[in-house]
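Q: Now give one record:
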Amino acid sequence: MDWLRALTHLRDEGRSGVLLTVTSVRGHAPREAGAKMVVTPGQTWGSIGGGNLEATAVTRARELLAAGTTAPVTLDLSLHEHAPVSFGRQCCGGEVSLLLEPLPARPVVAVFGLGHVGQELGRILGRLPLAVHLVDSRTSAAHQMQAAVSTDGPADVRITHAPAPEVVLADLPAHAHVLVMTHDHAEDLVLCEAALRRGDLGSVGVIGSSAKWQRFRKRLLEAGHTEASIGTLTSPIGRPELVGKEPAVIAVSVAAELLRALQAEPAGALTPQEGSELSSTPTG
């Protein structure tokens, strides 16, 4: 696939990457200004010219990914026989300037339950640069959400009708943030157990009162979950200083707490288990 489709592919999969662009060429070089490629920790798409030029740029891009760097970086490389190299001589004779633009994966947020609060929360999250999954076991609720949330905002929104929503939870990427607020306490409990079985989610919040959470905690302990694992779940959710029971107030409170957690995360966290190298590159 070309670099543009590669970026879309990474966005859809919630993976980080770096876009490399040849910004200027002086003298002879294997590729022209404007040539692009995309780099992840384990894959590349496109080419900026192969040889030491490309290998050096790919190595630098992966260093940016490993460090969680989000600011663009420039790189100037000479292509003559006396230039210092790490990956073999490339004697085209010119000089190349590159722009390396890190593109961190979007945080993934999944809301299970699209009642009054879930719909209000979906509207808010749709206005943020997130990958948002809105899930309900009821066909009618999913259809209402389709009409309520805008697809023109910056978020990548997926609305799913799932008779067994725990299946959707199992397919979320690692470090996703999960909010459980379905119409059925039994369904909430199933989702809590599914989240605890995974153990790799960024956060899990469960809507409800302290009394509801104490009942859930007892049931989870009886199911064999440890105090430590149960402690990774948060209930009640939201900012305690924002008082009110209106759905919009609760949604704003929950969104504010979620944003606080997202801003505390390291930028550009990498998704594990990247694929193998898939690049074919000409040499200069």
Observations:
- The radius of gyration is 23 Å.
- The CA atoms of residues 37 and 47 lie 5 Å apart.
